[in-house]
Amino acid sequence: MNDLVVAIDGPAGSGKSTTGRALAKRLGLKTLDTGASYRAITAAVLNAGIDPYDQEAVGALAAAASLDLDSGAVVNNIDVTEQLRSEEVNQSVSAIAANAAVREILVRWQREWVKKHGGGIVEGRDIGTVVFPEASLKLYLTADLEERGARRPEEGAQSVERRDLLDSNRHVSPLRKADDALTIDTTSRSVEDIVTQALATLEARGVIGSVAPPRRGSAFEPDLHKSVFYRFCRSLIYSFLWLLFRPSLSGPGEVPLEGAVVIAPVHRSAVDFGFSIFLTKRKIFFMAKDQIWKHRALGKLLIILGAFPVHRESADRSALEHAEAVLRAGGVLVMFPEGTRQSGNRVMEIMEGATFLAARTGATVIPMGIAGSEAAWPRGQKLPRPHRVFLYASEAITPPTRTAKGRVSRSALRVMTEQLRGALEQSLKDAASIARATK
Ligand code: DC
Questions:
Q1: What does the alpha-carbon distance between residue 43 and residue 116 come to, in Å, rounded to a whole number?
Q2: How far is the CA of 115 from the centre of ligand 1 (A)?
Q3: I need a labelling partner for 210 at 20 to 30 A (CA). Which of 55, 62, 72, 115 fits?
Q4: Are residue 272 and residue 160 in the same domain, yes or no?
């Protein structure tokens, strides 16, 4: 399949349509709401007076139906657009969607739609798993039930929850995240932010060209030199961290004296990135939330300390460019693969940013487990408290080899990301067992 297809799956109200439309605009593609195809057939079934649970009759209707979703929804030349979101259709659509014959027919119809339109943004429940397993990008969107209910005020949280339960537990093509899908919780993220991440991923995979090439002359030039002021500030931070947390470092991972390196720590507390200075004497660059830059003096200080701004907590484009510039210049970058602060001793899912950057620049990645920092500075507490912290640096992970064109294949990137996730979780466990043995 050569057409660009983005598969967006997730439960009702998870933000699929909004994200899909914004992404379609940026990529110049059309969107296909496959939920509407199931809803349209449901409306036709109800209009024909057929029992939605009568599998045979419903299957026969679907087999003979002509469907057009390009402007509104038309089944057998009858416009059912008005009915699509009605209470009756909400109540019956999950039964229709659980009908294997209907699914077979609609999946075929959806694939043809994409072929006819030369690709598309396709949203539904089984797009990444069944309809387009070879999609260029798969997103799996989630959001809190409360938020999803609020996004469907006419339907209500209760009905949304009921449909999700039915859609996730049916036998044929249940709602399920594809293994290679990017999970995005849309509860508190802006659409722009999600679109930026999706575009950056497509770009990293070589599916699309640079969406917004860096302007010449304005490129970020990281200063690898440690000024006297930098050394001074750093020794203050070092002393502060040492006094409060007495960090001890173990593990085989070592930051080389020169060359591009990504230090990839687990993220359990606000002080975590500071512990990177116990791994190397080299200057360390890091991303800092852009809200901090509103305070001008603080912003200036942060730049001296090696920071550059990132929009919210996800890796946005310009932040990725800055990060890449650091690595291209042979610098050390700290980046949390988990993206945002997590809790506990598992590393469930990580973002592709660190491996993507390493693959593009040839940098090695050093996973670092940190035990004790969550207890030292629990979420919601204003100030940290003295508590011992144990660091474990794992063996460096090297990026996959690039193709002749200088690209890294999607599958190689995925393998490296999974390798990093595993190593990160192991380093966290190793740090925790050293912490226990020291007690
Ligand atoms: O996205 P929506 O809420 O409009 O979808 C309506 C129903 O259609 C949903 O409850 C499950 C079903 N559906 C499906 O089974 N497979 C899809 N690809 C899309 C929707």
A1: 25
A2: 21
A3: 115
A4: no
Q: What is the mean pLDDT of the chain?
A: 90
Q: Are 141 and 16 in contact (CB under 8 A)?
A: yes
Look at the block and give the residue holding tokens 């593990």: 251
Q: Is the CA virtual torsion 102, 106, 107, 109 positive or negative? A: positive
H or E element, residue 18: helix 16-27
pLDDT tens digits along 61-115: 999 999 999 889 999 999 999 999 999 999 999 999 999 999 999 999 999 999 9
**Distance from C-alpha of 255 to C-alpha of 257, rounded to nearest angstrom:** 7
CATH number at residue 315: 3.40.1130.10
User: By alpha-carbon position, which residue is closest to atom 6 of ligand 1?
Assistant: 35
- What is the residue with the minimal CA distance to atom 4 of ligand 1? 35
Supply the CATH number for residue 9's domain.
Answer: 3.40.50.300
Picking from 204, 237, 267, the residue at the C-terminal end of a domain is 204
What total number of domains does the chain contain? 2
Rounded to two decimals, the pTM is: 0.54
Q: How far is it, in rounded angstroms, from Cα 217 to Cα 327? A: 19
Indicate which residue's Cα is closest to atom 16 of ligand 1: 125
70 contacts 117 by C-beta, under 8 angstroms: no
Q: pLDDT tens digit string along 17-60?
A: 999 999 998 888 899 999 999 999 999 999 999 999 999 999 99
**pLDDT for residue 413 is more than 80:** yes
CA of 34 to the centre of ligand 1 (A): 7
Ligand 1 centre to CA of 110 (Å) is 13
Instruction: Mark 11-38 as b/e (b = at least 16 C-beta within 10 Å).
Output: bbbbbbbebbebbbebbebbbbbbbbbb
Alpha helices, H only, 336-409: 353-361, 373-376
The answer to whether 352 and 234 have CB atoms below 8 angstroms apart is no
Rounded CA separation 122/128 (Å): 9
- Asked if 202 and 136 touch (Cβ cutoff 8 Å), the reply is yes
Q: Of the given ranges (62-76, 164-178, 255-269, 374-388), which has the lowest mean pLDDT?
A: 374-388
